[in-house]
Design brief:
Elements (H helix, E strand, L loop, with lengths): L8 E7 L2 H6 L8 H9 L3 E7 L4 H8 L4 E5 L12 H9 L4 E3 L2 H7 L3 H5 L10 E3 L2 H13 L4 E5 L8 E8 L2 E6 L7 E4 H8 L9 E5 L8 E7 L2 E8 L23 E3 L7 H19 L10 E7 L10 E7 L10 H12 L9
Parallel strand pairs: 1-2, 1-3, 3-4
Antiparallel strand pairs: 5-10, 6-7, 6-10, 7-8, 8-9, 11-12, 11-14, 12-13, 14-15
Length: 352
């Protein structure tokens, strides 16, 4: 094992190029507030820029740390985490903790979590297709008997591989993908099914949820530090909403700003209580995660579901983000730093 620096030394890891790696400092990065919060607690932290081209250089750097906090998307400019995740597992084997650990991401940071936890209070009528054959045979039948559906590939970000699908006729659909600027398209159902078959490559799958009619009221992003809510973000989104006549580049087609709120924001206290008292513990039990294995920072995206019998809002989970959670509320850097401080005093090899 490579000798480590003094206890309390961590690295913050994200994707970049050689120029960024050579010039980055804790003060000139978007994570500067997290660096500052760590420093205020006496924790040494350094930036670690990752790219496949200099993977072994990054490995040597991480081996000198006590812990690593990771901000790397599952998909970015055609690149995946295929080489990063084995690296992270290798450093964990040397007693260095990682957040979020690749195994934790697989348990709660992919779309499969929507199916595994469909019976919880945040769930919906959720289906899963694990093979091309099941998707071909089952999805058309389900679409014929239901309202518009939303299909999601298992791993992705930025709306990639997320489709709203509406049945127009027995063999024809209207579809709209999630990325900004996407336009609706009408095509044969069989052609759309064939287009989605690539999502099953490399043990992939597709999750199928009902479209939520209250989508125009916005998305609530619930930020969580380990198992406690650290804040909220509310945003009027445009994904899966057809663009106005002016086109996808018009001001009317742009999403609203994400308005950040602290954990005590009164309008979100019901959601906070549900998360902390019910849904997070239930999710942990369902997927087999301990509190120590939860990510130091993660978020759950909710849409408004139908009102309940008393007129209160319900919430439908549409995604959990684990691998690259940013931006974050103003309160979150202190939450992250406090959890890191506690984690540095747990036995080596703990993951999260």
């Amino acid at each position: 094992m490579i000798p480590k620096s003094k206890p309390g030394h961590v690295a913050l890891l994200w994707r970049g190029d050689r120029a960024m790696r050579d010039t980055i400092t804790p003060e000139n990065t978007r994570l500067k507030h997290i660096f500052a919060a760590l420093k205020a607690r006496g924790i040494d932290a350094e930036p670690a820029v990752f790219a496949e081209e200099f993977l072994y250089e990054v490995r040597a750097q991480l081996m000198g740390c006590d812990g690593v906090l990771v901000w790397v998307d599952p998909l970015s400019d055609g690149r995946t985490r295929a080489r990063l995740d084995p690296l992270l597992r290798a450093i964990v084997s040397q007693g260095i903790w990682v957040s979020a650990h690749p195994d934790t991401i697989l348990k709660m940071g992919t779309k499969e979590i929507l199916w595994r936890t469909r019976h919880l209070g945040w769930g919906a009528d959720t289906r899963i297709y694990r093979s091309v054959e099941s998707f071909r045979s089952e999805f058309p039948q389900h679409l014929a008997a239901a309202h518009p559906r939303v299909l999601k590939q298992n791993r992705g970000n930025g709306g990639q591989g997320v489709w709203k699908v509406e049945r127009l006729a027995a063999d024809r659909v209207r579809v709209l993908e999630g990325p900004r600027g996407s336009m609706p398209e009408e095509l044969a159902l069989g052609d759309f099914v064939a287009r989605c078959e690539r999502y099953f490559e490399n043990d992939g799958l597709i999750v199928d949820q009902p479209f939520q009619p209250r989508l125009p009221e916005g998305m609530i992003r619930c930020y969580v530090g380990q198992d406690k809510v650290a804040g909220f973000g509310h945003q009027l989104i445009k994904a899966l909403i057809p663009p106005p006549p002016e086109g996808p580049d018009s001001p009317e087609a742009q999403p609203g700003p994400r308005i950040m709120h602290g954990p005590d924001a009164p309008q979100f206290q019901r959601l906070r209580n549900l998360m902390e008292r019910e849904w997070i513990p239930q999710m942990m039990a369902e997927v087999g995660l301990t509190r120590e294995a939860l990510p130091i920072i993660w978020d759950a995206d909710f849409l408004y579901g139908p009102k309940d019998a008393t007129g209160k809002d319900t919430y439908v989970l549409c995604e959990i983000n684990v691998s690259s959670v940013f931006p974050i509320p103003d309160q979150a850097p202190d939450v992250i730093a406090e959890i890191v401080l506690n984690r540095l005093h747990t036995p080596s090899g703990a993951i999260g």
